[in-house]
Design goal:
Radius of gyration: 22 Å
Structural class: alpha+beta
Bound molecules: zinc ion
Largest sheet: 10 strands, mixed
Distance between the termini: 34 Å
Shape: globular
Order of helices and strands: HEEHEEEEHEHEHEEHEEEEEEEE
Number of strands: 18
């Protein structure tokens, strides 16, 4: 009897293997998530997009940086339009819990289309570049940031309905893109037939581009009334698991996808190994959570109200990312992990 069962199971495995060869990626057993280094260190909260009086913000760099420090952020990039603010002038604000990473928002246009690319951890101001095409203009600014050993991210693609998913998918050399920007005029959700930023992200991921989604403030207004129609701080950020409060360490983790983006939901951990993704959500009051696991083409692969939220590969996935929405409407976006077989 014992022997018989083993034979039966053996035949089953062989059958699956044959089916797998014949029909493509059907056998879940052959699939696993790409190995992801275990997350170490602490979560560091940061915003990579904020403006000051050096361009069109309403407060000095010191006032802006102090706002973020006071509100528990661990790092900040001041990203004025075509202006580089020297963090050395704000050294009195920097300590073991708060880091200023130098940056700039390279700001230009192709015809009527806005092209805004942030440069993070760049050593000096970079002049924005133009080209004879929209794609070329975006690419040249991404390249300009890389040439200065900085980290680029393309900003608010739906601002002025400027950058379509097709354009974004064709840009090379960028690993980060704004999927949420706190400015009131950037159309994060799309509309009128134009895709929102999450759909654009899935388009890029489905095309095979490895790109991670960030949330930023794009804050301009630190004085006067805080209102939905003003560009106030505190709306979108990233939480990066890093060993050190150091610009290269933080940006290295971000470009490897070891972070999440948020408008209010916090996580304790994200663990990925073998065929499983497991998300521990930090409980807040009596809030409840819905976690959706999303794959190729933006398809929702699974949905759960449990905490931790767990997804196991079922076969055929090419990438899996997750979105946790709380009962107040705030969101955390967990980065995509690619599937190998
Ligand atoms: Zn901008
Ligand atoms: Zn901006």
């Amino acid at each position: 009897m014992h022997c018989k069962r083993r034979n039966h199971m053996g035949a089953h495995v062989i059958l699956l293997v044959i089916l797998g060869f014949g029909l493509g990626p059907v056998a879940a057993g052959a699939q696993r998530f790409e190995s992801v280094a275990p997350q170490q260190g602490r979560w560091l909260k940061g915003n990579t997009h904020a403006h000051t009086l050096e361009s069109d913000g309403d407060s000095s760099p010191a006032v802006v940086a102090a706002w973020y420090k006071r509100h528990g952020y661990n790092f900040l990039v001041l990203s004025d339009h075509n202006v580089w603010v020297d963090p050395a002038k704000l050294a009195h604000l920097v300590d073991s819990s708060f880091l200023l990473i130098p940056g700039e928002e390279l700001t230009t246009a192709f015809q009527t289309k806005a092209v805004h690319v942030n440069g993070l951890n760049i050593p000096r101001v970079i002049a924005p570049r133009t080209d004879s095409t929209l794609l070329g203009t975006v690419q040249k600014n991404v390249d300009a940031v890389r040439e200065a050993a900085g980290v680029p991210h393309i900003n608010h693609p739906n601002f002025g309905w400027s950058l379509t998913p097709e354009i974004l998918a064709r840009v090379r050399g960028d690993k980060l893109i704004e999927i949420f920007n706190g400015h009131p005029l950037v159309h994060n959700n799309g509309g009128g037939g134009a895709p929102g930023m999450e759909a654009a992200w899935d388009y890029m991921l489905t095309s095979g581009k490895r790109i991670y989604g960030i949330a930023t403030d794009d804050a301009h207004h630190f004085t006067g009334e805080f209102a939905a129609n003003r560009a106030n701080p505190g709306r979108g950020w990233v939480a990066v698991r890093a060993q050190r409060l150091d610009a290269r360490a933080i940006l290295g983790e971000m470009e490897a996808g070891r972070f999440y983006a948020s408008t209010g939901v916090e996580l304790d951990s994200v663990a990925v190994f073998g065929r499983e993704m497991r998300i521990h959500i930090r409980q807040r009051g009596d809030f409840r959570f819905t976690t959706e696991f999303i794959g190729r083409g933006g398809t929702v692969l699974g949905r759960t109200g449990a905490n931790p939220a767990v997804y196991r590969l079922t076969g055929g996935e090419t990438y899996v990312r997750a979105r946790v929405t709380d009962s107040g409407g705030f969101i955390a976006w967990i980065q995509p992990v690619f599937v190998v077989r």
